[in-house]
Amino acid sequence: MTGTRKTTMRLSVHYCFIQGDFWMSSSVIIGFAAAYLQSKQIDNTQIGIILALAYILSIILQQMMAAAADKHKRLPLKIMTAGLMAAVVSLSILLAGCTDSEKLIAVLFILVCTLHLSIVPLINSLALQFVDRGIPVNFSVARGMGSVFYGIISFIVGYLVQRDGAAVIVPVFAVIYGILLVLTLTFPSPSPQMGKSEEGIGGRSQKIKGESFIAFFVRYKLFFVLLAGVTLQFITFNATCTYMINILRAVGGDSADLGLSNGLGALSELPTFLLFNYLVRKIRCSTLLKIAAFFFVVKFIVLLLATGVAMILFAQGLQMVTFALFIPASVYYVNERMDSENKVKGQALMTAAYIGVSGTIGDFAGGQMIDRLGVQAMLQAGVVLSILGLALIVIGAKDTADLRVSKALKAEGSCCHE
After folding, report:
1. Is the pLDDT of residue 400 over 60?
2. What backbone torsions phi and psi does residue 104 show, to the nearest 5 degrees?
3. End-to-end CA distance of the chain
4. Which of 60, 203, 232, 323 is the least crowded, having the fewest Cβ atoms under 10 Å away?
């Protein structure tokens, strides 16, 4: 094994643990958010507001961090990332010790989730900075490991919450994040000898001058139809993820079932993540997006019609052909559809659609609907939105003239999703 291959293997294994640990922490603080906040006597409407604020603030903070990264190019990416992680650990310790004040709990929880969500692109860029320098750190496998770790910790935390109560959630999260901080600090930074890419380190070193937003909109009108469809479907997706504990309780489930549900959904994603490079060579990206959109509708209908925990678990198993198919397909699709100067803008808009905008609306509106009209009303509205979203995605997901995957993505294996 050559020195370069050994370096690539070592980096890939280390990065797998970073992704795995990060998505474990996400499972705990986001996957069990409603269970934790409800245990603090915070109702669903308030939960929706708390999480919506976290999504909005994370979008703003991500832009601020991107600007800071461009301004301070000599600051190692891992140091910036570790600084935010240290803040998350500190705030989590404060949150774990706060038991009485609902307002203080809400503020601390918003801050923790805001910082946590803001770290996502930085975690991705830890790999991209090496990919840009010709070291093909395997992002797809690492993200697949993230799903495995997410699934495992979901089972464990679900059991712990059922046995010991929701108070265990934040301490477990803080411990996992402390380990993540150590893993990040010990992750190597690219050496000057590795060379530089034309596009910079993980998109940090230089900005690509693209079109104005109006010119971009005129050129890619159908892309905005696609974004509208994605937003509608992910409003329902984010709402069902956040309020899964309410959906389960409506059919007789509990916190242990929440852990089982989240874990099963995450583990079912792994085969798709690992096989996606093969799929994208056989099936057009636009078709994969439409397939994922169709099965999102199927999943939400199953959740609506569920009469027991088993049906909800079946719906969660459809993550294999919904979320796990959509995420890499959307990255490949934007890469194929956009001119080089607009790729970054396209990826940013797609991410904002399925995380920021949809998460904000889904969590806020979902909490309101559950408190006022009940779980079934939320699911009924979600099915309608997902069907409308499917129609828009079918219209907006235009087949590309060049159906081949770009050389960079083919070699790297989809290093940009989520």
Report:
1. no
2. -65, -40
3. 32
4. 60
Confirm if 27 and 269 have CB atoms less than 8 A apart: no
Q: Where are the alpha helices (DSSP H) in 254-374?
A: 255-282, 285-305, 309-317, 323-337, 343-351, 358-373
CB contact set of 176 (below 8 Å; sequence gap of 6+): 21, 24, 25, 28, 153
Q: How many CB atoms lie within 10 A of CB 345?
A: 17
CB atoms within 10 A of CB 418: 20
Contact 339, 326 (CB under 8 A): no
Report which residue type is found at 412. Answer: E
List, for residues 273-305, the tens digit of each pLDDT value: 888 878 888 889 899 999 999 999 999 999 999
CA pair distance 334, 328, nearest whole angstrom: 10
Give Cα 218 distance to the centre of its chain.
Answer: 29
Whole-angstrom distance, CA of residue 368 vs CA of residue 362:
10
DSSP annotation of 206 reads -
Contacts of 303 (CB under 8 A, 6+ apart): 240, 247, 311, 312, 315, 379, 382
Model confidence, pTM? 0.79
Question: In this structure, what token pair is assigned to residue 83?
Answer: 């600084």
What does each C-alpha distance from 193 to 9, 133, 244 come to in angstroms? Answer: 18, 10, 49
| HSE-CB of 97 using CA atoms within 13 angstroms | 5
Distance CA 290, CA 228 (A): 14
Pseudo-torsion of CA 173, 174, 180, 186, nearest 10°?
A: -170
- Phi, psi (rounded to 5 degrees) for 414: 60, 80
Six token digits for residue 17:
């643990």
CB 101 within 8 A of CB 42: no
> Which one-letter DSSP state was computed for residue 209?
-
Structure-token pair, residue 414: 């989809």
Rounded CA gap, 381 and 368, in Å?
Answer: 12
Percent over 70 (pLDDT), the chain: 85
